[in-house]
Amino acid sequence: MKRYIAKACPMALAICLLFLPILQGCAINEVREHSKNLFALNTWINIRIYAGREGPKIIDSAVRRIEEIERRMSVTIKDSDVSRINDNAGIQPVKVHEDTFKVIEKALEYAKLSKGAFDITVYPIVQLWGITTEHPRVPTDEEIREKLKFVDYQKVILNEDEGTVYLQEKGMGIDLGAIAKGYAADEVVRVLREEGVQHALINMGGNVIVVGNKPNGQPWRIGIQDPRSDGVQQHIAVVEAVNESVVSSGDYERYIKDVYQKTGVRYHHIFDPATGYPANQGLMATTVVAENSADADALSTIVFVMGAEKGLGLVEQIGNAEALAVTVDKKIYTTKGFDRRLTVTNEEYEIVP
Amino acid sequence: MRIPLKIGDAFVYGFAVVLVIISFAGMYLMGAKSDRRHVVIEMDKREIYSIEIHEGMEPVELRVDAGDGRYNEVVVMNGEVRIEEANCPDQLCVKSGAIRSSGQTIVCLPHKLVVRITGAGGEPSDVDDIAH
After folding, report:
1. Cβ–Cβ gap B92/A247 under 8 Å
2. Which residues of B touch A17 (CB under 8 A)?
3. Which residues pair with A241 in a beta bridge?
4. Model confidence over A103-160: pLDDT tens digits?
């Protein structure tokens, strides 16, 4: 009997040793970074998550969600909800998917709060200028006046029971570009959380949203783009973020380059619905930090259109976000207390209390 | 007390030891591999190049064809990568300059091109991302 035990011991040890690396391999379903880039919603999107082996699958479900939202809300896709709404302006209400309805509802809320500074019906003006197309141009005052007639968010009629959207006048059109990316980011976060992801960073064409903190327990450090670095990725300040979205808007990404080179006037892509011209409130950029990316997305546009004083005042009044505005003379104004969260990293810029 | 070691036993022990060594070696090699930096070039979601980079490497010049005569010229040298030239309308990829740290990216939206650095190493970037 003793002999068997004595013999079995080393044998058992050997078997344990044999399985050790395999066991470790299993236990290792090690949490590591998974990253994916894609082009959707007319921009570049990067999804970075920390997960085990299931990481790629989780990212795929997030990507499917983005593509769904794109199919419903893109103005460049012919049979999207938004295109059908626009095609039926002045004709009939259009039944849309719940996603589209929710986003338009939120957009109209912000239109009211901002007294029209944020207005999805600015699309005819957007088309007239064509800033994001290959052939942008400066229209005449006459052309702008003509199109401004069609800009009025109060003529967007929602019917909640029917799930329909109706634009009351022919010639009207909506563009969800200033809020859809934010909504999509929030939906990605929802998918990731449902799958148990604890740490993630999503960049939707410059809109950043983070899930949790970093895997090492530190907050995420998000840079705020230098609006005058001529495209180079450089930041003027850093904000630390946990479970938040950081969204910037500005005059520096899309503007008519040849007109700028000749005249020094920057005709950029954020329009003031009141004038039909690019917003001109002495700002180069705005950044909003909020729990929801859709809120941050809409508010960054609102502050840019309303200007530092009124815009930041409105953000404080709504109370769901923090914001900063960078003026053309490189001063950074913030909502109350937000300056304490910022570290300025470019000495040309200065926070004004 | 003596335990006779049979040939079969010795074979089993030997086999176990060899397996253990191979497994650990494999894990070590896999682990070491992910420490190196790679430049990954993706065109419209497809990975088309993955190049290991380090200081003092031979420069690599690549012309990435985006179809319809559209192109980006990518230069990989000295542990960094940049877009030397491109015929995209916005030229943002060229202006992005060189990147060298893991996680950094250059994007050419009109050509659906992404150049990024994976793996560990390089000077760590001082931020995790930039909101723009």
Report:
1. no
2. 16-17, 20
3. A220
4. 999 999 999 999 999 999 999 999 999 998 888 999 999 999 999 999 999 999 999 9
Query: Binning pLDDT at 50, 70 and 90, where does residue A243 land?
Result: very high
Q: Name every residue whose Cβ is closer than 8 Å to that of residue A349 and which is 6 or more positions away in sequence.
A: A236, A237, A326, A330, A331, A332
Q: What is the pLDDT of residue A220?
A: 96
When CB atoms are compared, the residue of A44, A201, A248 closest to B128 is A201
Pair (A154, A225) in one structural domain: no
Q: Is the pLDDT of residue A1 over 60?
A: no
Q: Which domain holds residue B18?
A: 1-33
Residue whose C-alpha is closest to residue A203's, from B44, B4, B114? B114
Q: Mark whether A280 and A347 lie in a shared domain.
A: yes
Separation between Cα atoms, residue A234 and residue B104, nearest integer Å: 12
Helix/strand/coil for A6: helix
Which amino acid type is present at position A303? V
Report CA-CA distances (Å) from A326 to A334, B40, B42. 9, 35, 34
> Is the domain of B28 the same as that of B41?
no
Indicate if A346 and A258 belong to the same structural domain. Answer: yes
Would an 8 Å CB–CB cutoff place A225 in contact with chain B?
Answer: yes
Better pLDDT: A250 or A23:
A250
Q: Are A152 and A267 in contact (CB under 8 A)?
A: no
Q: Which domain holds residue A275?
A: 219-352
Residue B129 lies in a domain: no
E runs forming strands in A52-133: 94-95
Shared domain for B73 and B97, answered yes or no, is yes
Distance CA A238, CA A306 (A): 24
Overall domain count for chain B: 2
In degrees and rounded to multiples of 5, residue A263 shows phi and psi of -115, -15
Say whether residue B16 is in contact with chain A using an 8 A CB cutoff: yes
* Strand B70-77 versus strand B80-86 pairing type: antiparallel
Which residue in A260, A253, A275, A38 sits closest to A132, CA to CA? A253
| CATH number of the domain to which A142 belongs | 1.10.3980.10
**Same domain as B27, residue B55:** no
Q: How many domains does chain A have?
A: 2
Which among A55-59, B25-29, B59-63 has the top mean pLDDT? A55-59
Q: What is the ipTM of this complex?
A: 0.84
Query: Residue A237 gets which letter from DSSP?
Result: E
Q: Is residue B127 part of a domain?
A: no
Q: Tens digit of pLDDT for each residue in B65-123?
A: 988 999 999 999 888 899 999 999 888 899 888 888 877 889 998 899 999 888 766 55
Which pLDDT belongs to residue A25?
Answer: 54
Binary contact (A221, B128; C-beta < 8 A): yes
B83, B73 Cβ separation under 8 angstroms:
yes
